[in-house]
Amino acid sequence: MGDLNAKADYVFKVVLIGDSAVGKSQLLARFAKNEFNVDSKATIGVEFQTKSLLIDGKMVKAQIWDTAGQERYRAVTSAYYRGAVGAMLVYDMTKRQSFDHMTRWLEELRGHADKNIVIMLIGNKCDLETLRAVPVEDAKEFAEREKLYFMETSARESTNVETAFLTALTEIYGIVSKKTLSADGDSEKSASLKGTAILVDQDANSGAKGGGCCG
Amino acid sequence: MLYKLGDFFICSSSSSGGGGGCQPLNAGVNLAITVFAALVIAAAMYSTTRLMKALRRSQTSSSSSSSSNSSNSSSSWIHLRSVLFVVASSSPASCSTSDRGRLKSPWSRRKRKHALTPQQWRNLFTPDGKLRDGVKFLKKVRSGGVDASIRSEVWPFLLGVYELNTCKEERDKLRTQGRKKYEKLRRQCRKLVGEGSSNGDSHSQGMESAESEEVVSARESLSSEEINSSPSPMNSGVLLEEEEATPGSGSTRFIDPNISDSESSDSDSSQSQDPPELSQSQTFPFPSSENEESSAVQSSEDFSTWQRIIRLDAIRANGDWIPYSQPQAEVSEERAVRSAEAVGLKDYEHLEACRIFHASRLVAVLEAYALYDPEIGYCQGMSDLLSPIIAVMNEDHEAFWCFVGFMRKARHNFRLDETGIRRQLNRVSKIIKSKDSHLYKHLEKLQAEDCFFVYRMVVVLFRRELTFQQTICLWEVMWADQAAIRAGIGKSSAWNRIRQRAPPPTEDLLLYAIAASVLQRRKQIIEKYSSMDEIIRECNNMAGQLDVWKLLDDAHDLVVSVHDKIETPTTMSSSSSSSLHHK
Asked: Which Pfam family, an example, fits this chain (chain B) (predicted)?
């Protein structure tokens, strides 16, 4: 079979959302396959990848759902928010509008997903510093206000991509493992995150500042 | 593979293909492609790209391309593919030209006829340019597709731009009217580009900010037909009625996209307002100076949103058409850039000339379509459908009307209210249910009987799963079926005579093909998959794994065995009237 289900201690469902062409699929391809495809097509509906990783000695299988960015598809994609324990809210830091839309995406997410979902705000394309249209401060302020993690990434240059996902997954793991969810090896059961407060993680913020490509 | 990063040990899940680790090679490949793009001419470029793609594929997947000899037991390669990669849509198997020759499909065992040849095509016409035998024509196409050299002539018939019984004179007239109509839409688009924001620009994303420099360059038009037309200063409501429209030509010649086929749940509601463009343009929610967004009833999407997304998608359109469209592949840098400027395209510096040109044409036609059919506007996936048409049709206005014909059915998949797509998925589900109750029960158990896992296939009609050539084969066969039904010959005695050997034409060949592709995988699905996610993954990974003729063969078998159980009487009857130009 070659499937890693049997070995996974945890399966975490994470959704990638944000406007069209901000780089959601690229972030996922970079994280799951270490690939970057210059002409990646628009995602139709939803697609997903998984990646298994070891956190604290446990095998965690991240099941990451990539969604279409266009509003038209939102009814389809939002159906997939259910059961998600994490969300990557992605904007393109060279496109102000994609950042301005974060509020809407967040509403959408909070309307459909578990209340305690771990959310990470991601400003992608930080390799294009010269074209920056969203100051780090704006994003940080937004993230703090909304209690989100925040990081700037570049899928193209592979900057902070692992770190962003790992930060989110580790946070999820931290919450879930505390919540006595038993490791159920054979099922695709997604953990739930009842009653956990989420705080802005300072490391994540500093990661954004010091993130190699962004200076 | 394990490697250490910070405090985490990451274990690549890509057990078999080795695609998951941290190979820097891909970056190298991509870089190489970029560099090559600047250096090599288009033709040479393609073979290089193919090589690169092949290289990348062999690196990310252990499967060979094109599943050449896939018989019914196609499971052997499937189970290896437990690796989770959504095969990047840009890389369906790049084999193509020789597909038909190499594939031993049951189709060929049945002495499948070859593609309609130029000679045969010419012979089908009377001296005054009338098709002698529409049935023969469509039978030919549905059994083997169309020779590449005559596609641009044949497609308008298949897509209902011309009715089968028109003579040359009538078609010339329609063509001229169509061109004018399209040009008007383009002029209106250019005006709206000026009013709304043109995008792709990294700084000004405000809906209100006008990118005026593009308006100036927009005067330069894309195809030669447009050169005489200059942007009109009139307001857009009037624009559609302006001088060029010969009396009568402007109103009812062209189909209201709302009037359509059996898939339409609302065709009753829209029959009444026939003069389509006029009424649409007046109710159209483009951003006007006084009320920006208030008219966007259904969603916050408006024309400027569509324009922005159209450009994003045009830039990243597939380049796999390039080897099959020589004139466009050889377009000069200068012309390409000019065409880009004409439609206000930006951020194209990394593209080869032919892809810039292609992207610009996509923008022009998609924008025009969004105006023509504002209920749908633009939805991602539509560029996937248009791109092959652009590659085949050298004139934008012809591509536009072919696209309109294509969209007459496909548009329902893009509806905001999702009725169309749900209906289609439901039908796939029904087909599977009546063919294979065992598989269906398994799907039910996994709560996947709604067939949402074939969503993408339905929306972009296998474009992401098949190569350019394969896609076109499938579409031509499908269009021939739809044309037969449209022309009312689906039930004719002429067709009945051959019914013993071939399945009856159906509006939904695509859905049968999709069901066939799922049924081809029934064994793995039943035996190995224990969740819907796995089926979605499987479907997303079909790219490069499908044999189009085998697929069509299976689809036709399915039509024969379950068609009568599935088809409802309404499906067959309602569509006969529709044609792009009703007189």
From this structure: RabGAP-TBC
Cβ-based contacts of A133 with chain B (< 8 Å): 202-203, 205
Q: Please say if the pLDDT value at position B500 is more than 70.
A: no
Residue B504 carries which DSSP code?
A: P
Give the tens place of pLDDT for each residue, A31-81. 999 999 887 899 998 888 999 999 999 999 999 999 999 988 888 888 888
Q: How many CB atoms lie within 10 A of CB B375?
A: 16
Q: Which two tokens stand for residue B261?
A: 């086929």
Give the pLDDT confidence of B308-322 residue by residue, as tens digits: 999 999 999 989 999
Instruction: Check residue B163 and give its pLDDT.
Output: 94
Average pLDDT value for residue range A17-44: 94
Listed by number, the residues of chain B in 406-425 with a beta carbon closer than 8 Å to a beta carbon of chain A are 414, 416, 418
**How far away is chain A from the Cα of B208, in angstroms, using its nearest Cα?**
12
| Segments in B79-167 forming alpha helices (H) | 99-102, 106-109, 118-123, 134-144, 151-158
Tokens standing for B313?
């998608």
Tens of pLDDT, residue by residue over B224-278, are 333 333 333 333 332 333 333 333 333 333 344 444 343 333 333 333 333 333 3
Per residue, the 3-state secondary structure of B201-226, as one string, reads: CCCCCCCCCCCHHHHHHCCCCCCHHH
The single-letter code of the amino acid at A174 is G
**pLDDT above 90 (res B209):** no
* ipTM surpasses 0.85: no
Task: Choose the mutation target among B1, B4, B14 for the interface with A, i.e. most A CBs under 10 Å.
Answer: B14
Residue B529, number of CB atoms within 10 A of its CB: 20
Q: What length does chain B have?
A: 583
Q: Is B6 on the interface with A (CB under 8 A)?
A: yes
Q: Is the pLDDT of residue B10 over 50?
A: no
Bridge-based pairing of strands A10-18 and A58-67 is parallel
Distance CA B468, CA B391 (A): 10
Judging contacts by C-beta atoms under 8 Å, the chain B residues touching residue A42 are 312-313, 316, 380-381, 383
Contacts of A69 in chain B (CB under 8 A): 380
Mode of pairing for the β-strands spanning B2-5 and B8-11: antiparallel
Enumerate the H helices of chain A as residue ranges.
24-33, 74-78, 96-100, 102-112, 136-146, 161-178, 202-209
> CB-based contacts of A68: which residues, under 8 Å, 6+ apart?
A20, A42, A43, A44, A45, A46, A76, A77, B380
Q: Are B284 and B239 in contact (CB under 8 A)?
A: no
In degrees rounded to 5, what are phi and psi of residue B146? -125, 140
B464 vs A contacts (CB less than 8 Å): 41, 44
Which among A44, A46, A95 has the least Cβ separation from residue B202?
A95
